[in-house]
Amino acid sequence: MTEATVQGRPGGRSARVRVAVHRAVGELLAEEPAEALTIPAIAARAGVHATTVYRRWGSVAQLLGDVATSRFSGDVVVPDTGSLGDDLERWMGDVATDLADPDVLALMRATIGSGPDGGSACTADRHAQLGAIIERERARGGKAPSVERAIDTLLGPLYYRAIFGGEPASSEWARGLVATLLAAM
Q1: Is residue 45 pLDDT above 60, yes or no?
Q2: What confidence score (pLDDT) does residue 10 get?
Q3: Which of 24, 73, 82, 144 could form a disulfide with 45, with the two C-beta atoms 3.0–4.6 Å apart?
């Protein structure tokens, strides 16, 4: 067999359907309230049959969780400046910028409102990134807070403002939370 025959296709119909459905969810959330999201509406926008969407995701909540997990995975780079404070400030500025995007907020609000696992789909990667920054500081021999303390001090207020506040926090305000965390250590 040739090498081309052994390798799988780098996409195919399944990947195209996933991209089309994810795009349709984003477009619909930008146009209508989350309550208007239905599998038939999403399928029609994506150009696929509703049974395809039901078979793959089962419900709007599961679909929103998949879209959020995909959207919030790896989109913010974890900096490595050699300093915990600098790493956290850069990272928090990037996270705040991301949360200021109206499309991101619409997806987060819809996903969180869709069921008990919605919040995790929106924050799991951020928690892992923050954990990596803190563990890297410990590996360098530096003093670092617990991951839970950092989540409560940094992400808690930032996400609260983004989701429940009238306006998302500025990058400058988000970076100021780092000073609060480091002062408490």
Answers
A1: yes
A2: 52
A3: 24
Q: Taking the CB of residue 155, how many other CB atoms lie within 10 A of it?
A: 19
- Residue 29 contacts residue 37 (beta carbons within 8 Å): yes
- The length of the chain, given as a count of residues: 185
Q: 2: Cβ–Cβ under 8 A, 6 or more apart, which residues?
A: none
153/181 Cα distance (integer angstroms): 6
Place of tokens 């506040």: 165
CB 142 within 8 A of CB 135: no
φ, ψ dihedrals at 139, nearest 5° = -65, -30
Nearest-angstrom CA–CA distance, 162 and 169: 7
Residues whose CB is less than 8 angstroms from the CB of residue 89 and which lie 6 or more positions away in sequence, other chains included:
175, 178
pLDDT of residue 46: 97
